[in-house]
Design a protein that fits this description.
- It contains 4 helices and 2 strands, in the order ααβααβ.
- By secondary structure, the chain is mostly helical.
- α3 packs antiparallel against α4.
- The longest helix is centred in the C-terminal third of the chain and has 25 residues.
- The radius of gyration is 20 Å and the shape is elongated.
- The two termini are 37 Å apart.
């Protein structure tokens, strides 16, 4: 069932529609989501190249796996646990920085 029940019909000339389609093609968003996010105050970035996207996904999976290992505390020595914590923090930081700089959208402060 749809969560959005209101519909808006907008007419574009050929040039406007072509421009909108070109803008959307450079992202990973649908045209509808693109418009919604623009209205919500997001600035839309171009989609990153596939290898970069895969790298971010890999880093996130690795951080998640390390977090699970830490939760189950397979390491008995304090040095091992500390090294694991440090590695996990570095992975999280790396993944978040990559995502912040390279992912398609980010929230911008509204200008007055």
């Amino acid at each position: 069932m749809r969560t959005r029940k209101n519909r808006v019909v907008v007419y574009f000339n050929d040039r406007e529609l072509e421009r909108l389609n070109r803008m959307v093609e450079r992202t990973v968003l649908s045209r509808e989501r693109f418009i919604r996010e623009m209205l919500a105050g997001f600035s839309i970035r171009e989609a990153p190249p596939a290898p970069l996207w895969e790298t971010v996904c890999f880093l996130r999976r690795a951080a998640s796996a390390l977090w699970n290992i830490q939760q189950h505390s397979m390491f008995r020595q304090v040095e091992d646990e500390e090294l694991l914590r440090e590695t996990l923090q570095e992975l999280k930081l790396c993944a978040s920085q990559l995502a912040e700089h390279c992912m398609p959208t980010f929230k911008e402060e509204k200008r007055k």
